[in-house]
Amino acid sequence: DAGVTQSPTHLIKTRGQHVTLRCSPISGHKSVSWYQQVLGQGPQFIFQYYEKEERGRGNFPDRFSARQFPNYSSELNVNALLLGDSALYLCASSLAGEGTEAFFGQGTRLTVV
Amino acid sequence: KQEVTQIPAALSVPEGENLVLNCSFTDSAIYNLQWFRQDPGKGLTSLLLIQSSQREQTSGRLNASLDKSSGRSTLYIAASQPGDSATYLCAVIRGGGADGLTFGKGTHLIIQP
């Protein structure tokens, strides 16, 4: 079975632009979460979606938004990009939303110039 | 607010040694604790998940323990190998999971051949 897949793997954007990152969870998993990891730090929680509904949101500005589709795949959108948004964006999937084991994708490396 | 601390921040040991990585968390009201491995520039690989009702989990040369009351977990790696070189991350999640995983900054491990 395929693991968690994220696309694209790398992305370079200019300040002020908008970006969309995509994630496909493991087959049968209904929960998707997004994390931001800057160099030298642990990942920071951005959003959790379960059964297409937002179940949790971390301490990120409203420029960050996400959604989950009927097939449980997910998109993370970031508007008005800042240099500080440069990071590795990680998607995690799990069977359910109640703290079950999380499996991560390889991430999308976003560079804002 | 939950805070996770990992000690040491970096560790370099010769091949074949047994070693212990430490993780502490400030809020003992956790649902589970998960240990991950991260290779440079890559996503996270789940190593072990310990439910809050469990004391330890084992997988091959890895053993993780959890003392929820004292807010501590340890990851024991037996007979270390150069392929074990990576950053090891500890993460906890509260009941409900709406806050997502809270990560430490990781322990950067180098196993010298």
Account of the protein in words:
- The complex is a heterodimer of chains A (113) and B (113).
- Chain A has strands spanning 5-7, 10-13, 19-24, 31-37, 44-50, 53-57, 64-68, 74-78, 87-94, 103-104, 108-112.
- Chain A is mainly beta and 113 residues long.
- In chain A, strands 2, 4, 5, 6, 9, 10 and 11 form a 7-stranded mixed sheet that branches. Chain A has a 4-stranded antiparallel sheet with strand order 1-3-8-7, with no helix packed on it.
- Chain A is globular and about 40 Å long.
- The termini of chain A are far apart.
- Chain B is mainly β.
- Chain B has no helices and 11 strands.
- Chain B has strands at 4-7, 10-14, 19-25, 30-38, 44-51, 56-59, 62-67, 72-77, 86-94, 102-103, 107-112.
- The A-B interface holds A 4, 6, 33, 35, 40-46, 48, 55-56, 58, 88, 90, 92, 97-99, 101-107, 109 and B 4, 31-32, 34, 36, 41-46, 49, 89, 91, 93-106.
Write the SSE topology.
The complex is a heterodimer of chains A (113) and B (113).
Chain A: E1 5-7, E2 10-13, E3 19-24, E4 31-37, E5 44-50, E6 53-57, E7 64-68, E8 74-78, E9 87-94, E10 103-104, E11 108-112
Parallel strand pairs in A: 2-11
Antiparallel strand pairs in A: 1-3, 3-8, 4-5, 4-9, 5-6, 7-8, 9-10, 9-11
Chain B: E1 4-7, E2 10-14, E3 19-25, E4 30-38, E5 44-51, E6 56-59, E7 62-67, E8 72-77, E9 86-94, E10 102-103, E11 107-112
Parallel strand pairs in B: 2-11
Antiparallel strand pairs in B: 1-3, 3-8, 4-5, 4-9, 6-7, 7-8, 9-10, 9-11
